[in-house]
């Protein structure tokens, strides 16, 4: 009798699930809400152990992917570029929630900006949260975004989501002026990010006017994979082919992390399986300038079958119950965990070749990179 190991999303979550992850909201919305918890067992996020390949024993030692080794060369490249500015970069962080994670992230950003001689101003509306009803709070945040948009001394605006419901949060994202959209979450910024493969840091600083602002967390993953520390990125290949031959599984097709990340990697040659609660999409570039997206040919491919092909696994599921089963990983896979709750099992290093349990400091650095690009494009 086969053993069915169920690694499914949290069974008690409502149909629309959201949680703050770094500065972005990660959301999974099934097209048909499950009627009961067992419905999740039939989702793509199911591992059936008999289908696992007969891998040889993996004896290599897993290396932790060091954020310091990723950020150090990027900072070195940007040092001269920042020195040429007529005034320091200025980023404003807008807090309107009492969520401790958002406040912690704002404090981390403030410290990192200070070290990099970037001005960071925190605007905190959360203290007045109890003084307003819901509609008044929304109006106050909306008015503050408009005010910051009009301040030409501001190079970047971070709004710490989630704040209200999904619809109103989307309205607030769309209200952020593209010239200060340092997180790359405005619909216009997101659409551009699907069209272009990310350049190297050296290429970006040489011609920032032609650069694209990408969502920070997704960009942090790409910068990690581009680093010499990882050693899989072919910077000598033509743009569009630098991740050629690599297969990636990205779990959670959120609009600000999973989906743009899949597009960015596919635009540079990777084959990407984008896994969400109700479907798996395949992102790949087949000769054109932009990637194509198709539904996986299997109706409900098991997560194990996708992991068996994957050189790289990136997860961003906002729930503690979901874990990528270590036994299903391809030996030597590069594993990157973007969830603050941890999406890999404790023994992931027994199977992975490289593991990144967090990339927060890389994400914060990408804020500064994006602020530099926006300054150069709108000064």
Automatic annotation (TrEMBL):
Gene Ontology cellular-component annotations: cytosol
GO terms under biological process: one-carbon metabolic process; purine nucleobase biosynthetic process
Region (Disordered): 1-26
Keywords, alphabetical: One-carbon metabolism
Domain named Tetrahydrofolate dehydrogenase/cyclohydrolase catalytic: residues: 70-183
Domain of life, per lineage: Eukaryota
Domain Tetrahydrofolate dehydrogenase/cyclohydrolase NAD(P)-binding: 232-338
Gene3D superfamilies xrefs: Leucine Dehydrogenase, chain A, domain 1, NAD(P)-binding Rossmann-like Domain
Molecular function via GO: methylenetetrahydrofolate dehydrogenase (NAD+) activity; methylenetetrahydrofolate dehydrogenase (NADP+) activity
InterPro entries given in the database record: Aminoacid_DH-like_N_sf (IPR046346), NAD(P)-bd_dom_sf (IPR036291), THF_DH/CycHdrlase (IPR000672), THF_DH/CycHdrlase_cat_dom (IPR020630), THF_DH/CycHdrlase_NAD-bd_dom (IPR020631)
Biased composition (Low complexity): 14-26
Protein name: Methylenetetrahydrofolate dehydrogenase [NAD(+)]
